[in-house]
Design brief:
By secondary structure, this protein is of the alpha/beta class. Helices cover 44% and strands 11% of the residues. The protein has 18 helices and 13 strands. Helix 2 packs across helix 14, helix 2 packs antiparallel against helix 15 and helix 11 runs antiparallel to helix 18. The longest helix is centred in the C-terminal third of the chain and has 18 residues. The protein is globular. The two termini are 27 Å apart. The relative contact order is 0.17.
Length: 440
């Protein structure tokens, strides 16, 4: 049962963590693994770089902006390097019960491809095994934001780089806050006070929640000081050695969630069954609930929260250091024993160059991993974007932490929704940490 829930979590998270490029498990609707290349191979060079990912190249007329943006950067590399990037595509029916992450682990370990798109926990595992190339020497790596390097560095090696940074925030109905004279909350105490006012004024459920993303509240409170207090590496070292406990960091966030459950600010039973956006989204759009949590791109997507009948603001989660964006990081990595190693490095240099990332950012309206590129975001996203620009954030995935964060915390929060006590949840963190320490 634990494995089943973990894989379902990964399926949902994958769509968000890499934008709408990534579709995993049964969510992947492809019926063929044959690639459709944008540039026909005229046989002049014969050079090929093999990319394993969850998607094929976009076919003409396919309306998928995120996929098209990635394909545009690949086309740039193909033209400049006179080679072909072949897409070797994950489809659920080809691998039956294996998830995308399972298949990536197997393919990298057996040196089956050159370049891979990977989720955070896969990056962590393969990086620690030494199966991924150190990318820190690439020219494109010199332009990366600190958040990317912090998340994807394993044993001193930068092992993966994304084309975008996905930031989670609170989506706020600003009109409802103004109606009740409420300022946007900065701290957990201020957030709870806003919920109290909404509840007392007849708002049945102030916070719309689903079974995937409540851990964002926990991360903001648990790691606000760790990532913004100037002592990050020392604290992570102490966590990895067991000198400090993850449960001590996580407890305030879990107590916060328990208080919201006890006071009816979130509906735990509904949240436990809700899929992301599909569950809580209708009430938010209908102005029955003033607060939901989601990722950056949802503010731009008409199928999510891109069109509202009210003024929307996207802010960070409440923490001791104010509104805090929560950031999980995926990335592209190169197999350390890649057959076409030099050509693969050259492809990555092109698709992660500032020129290509500017094209990608302008097309998708997302936060770039390059510190040289700023997104022209909609006004609703400006509060979240300002915090990112100030280098204020917490990571929900960090490959240098021995205990995987995003997936494990999601599962333990779900235990809380299903009736587990805070102490029982903390005991699970202690168990995970003990396992990790014993493996060192």
């Amino acid at each position: 049962m634990r494995k089943f829930f973990r894989e379902r979590m990964r399926q949902a998270a994958a769509v968000i963590l890499a934008g709408s490029v990534v579709f995993m498990g049964t969510a992947c609707g492809n019926k063929t693994a044959m690639p459709h290349n944008l540039i026909p191979d005229d046989g002049s060079s014969g050079k090929v770089v093999n990319l394993f990912g969850p998607m094929e190249k976009s076919k003409p007329g396919v309306d998928n902006i995120a996929r098209t943006a990635f394909d545009m950067t690949v086309k740039m590399a193909e033209e400049r390097l006179n080679l072909i990037v072949e897409y070797r595509t994950y489809t659920a029916e080809n691998y039956q019960e294996k998830t995308y992450d399972d298949v990536v682990l197997d393919r990298v370990r057996h040196n089956m491809d050159d370049l891979y798109l990977m989720n955070p926990d896969t990056i962590q595992v393969l990086g620690k095994e030494g199966n991924l190339l150190d990318l820190s020497g690439l020219a494109c790596a010199q332009n990366l934001r600190d958040v990317v390097k912090a998340a994807n560095t394993v044993d001193g090696k930068l092992v993966a780089i994304p084309q975008e940074i996905v930031a989670y925030g609170l989506f706020i109905n600003k009109d409802m806050f103004d109606q009740y004279g409420l300022s946007l909350p900065n701290t957990p105490e201020e957030f709870l006070e806003c919920c109290r006012v909404f509840k007392e004024n007849g708002i049945e459920t102030p916070v719309g929640a689903n079974r995937w993303w409540l851990e964002t509240f926990v991360f903001a409170q648990a790691f606000a000081d760790l990532y913004n207090g100037g002592n990050t590496q020392e604290e992570i070292k102490a966590l990895n050695s067991g000198e400090r406990k993850y449960s001590d960091y996580m407890r305030p966030g879990f107590e916060f969630l328990q208080e919201m459950i006890d006071k009816g600010y979130i509906d735990a039973k509904a949240a436990y069954t809700y899929e992301a956006i599909e569950g809580e989204g209708p009430d938010f759009l209908a102005q029955k609930t003033p607060i939901v949590m989601a990722y950056w791109t949802a503010a731009n997507a008409d199928t999510a929260y891109g069109k509202t009948d009210f003024t929307m603001q996207v802010i960070g989660f409440p923490s001791s250091r104010g509104q805090m964006p929560v950031v999980p990081i995926t990335g592209y990595g190169i197999c350390a024993e890649a057959e076409n190693l030099e050509d693969t490095k050259a492809v990555l240099e092109v698709i992660l160059s500032d020129e290509a990332l500017q094209l990608y950012t302008d097309t998708n309206k997302v936060i770039s991993p390059s510190k040289n590129i700023e997104v022209d975001c909609i006004p609703a996203l400006e509060p979240l974007n300002e915090r990112i620009k100030e280098n204020v954030y917490v990571l929900a995935s960090n490959a240098s932490m021995d205990v995987e964060q995003w997936g494990n915390t999601c599962l333990i929060v779900r235990n809380l929704l299903n009736g587990a006590t805070v102490d029982e949840c903390m005991a699970e963190f202690d168990r995970l940490q003990e396992e990790a320490v014993n493996k060192r």
